[in-house]
Hints:
Elements: H1 3-12, H2 39-50, E1 66-68, H3 74-81, E2 90-92, H4 98-114, E3 119-123, H5 136-147, E4 151-156, E5 166-171
Parallel strand pairs: 2-3
Antiparallel strand pairs: 1-4, 3-5, 4-5
Helix pairs in contact: 4-5
Amino acid sequence: MSDDDEHAFRDAMSDVRPLRLRETYPEAPKPPAEARFRRLDEQAVLRESLQPPADPALLDTGEELIFRRPGLRDEVLRRLRRGQFAVEDEIDLHGLGRHAAHEALREFIGASMDRRLRCVRVVHGKGLRSGPRGPVLKHVVNHWLQRMQDVAAFATARPVDGGTGAVYVLLGRPRRFDRRND
C-alpha cells in the first residue's frame, strides 16, 4: 500500500468511532406454541386409549399385521400387502408415548382423509427396546387402526418400507374399492 493510499484511508476514517459493546444479547426465539386440548377431549382420549379391545386376541398379532373390512376384495388386500399402492404420506410414531401416538395417528388419518389420500404408511417401530413387553406401539396401532372407520385395510409393509416396523394403510370405505375403481 502506498503512502497516498494510507493517507486517503486515514482521512476517510477520521470521523469513525468504535461501536460500543452490547451488554445484552437478543433473546433466543421462543418455541412454537402447542395447541392444548380441552379437558373433556383429554379425558375422552385417555378413556378410549386405555380400553382393551373387546376380543383380547386382537392384541396377539405375531410379526405380521393384516386387516381388512368386510366388502374389500381379496385382490385389493393382496396388492396392498405387495406394496403396489403408491404411499402418498407417512407418519413416524417412534419415540411417542402411547397417548401422544394415539392422538397423532387420529389427526394424521383424519388429515389424510381430508386430502383424499388413498394409501399412507404408519411407522410404529419394531419395539426392539421395549424389553419383555414386546412392541407396545405395534400392538396398540393394530388395535387403533381396526377401530377407525376411515381405514379400509392395513398390512405390514415390505422390508424396503419398514418391514414389521410399519404398515401400509388403505383409506376409505370398502365400497370405494369395487371393480370399477381398480
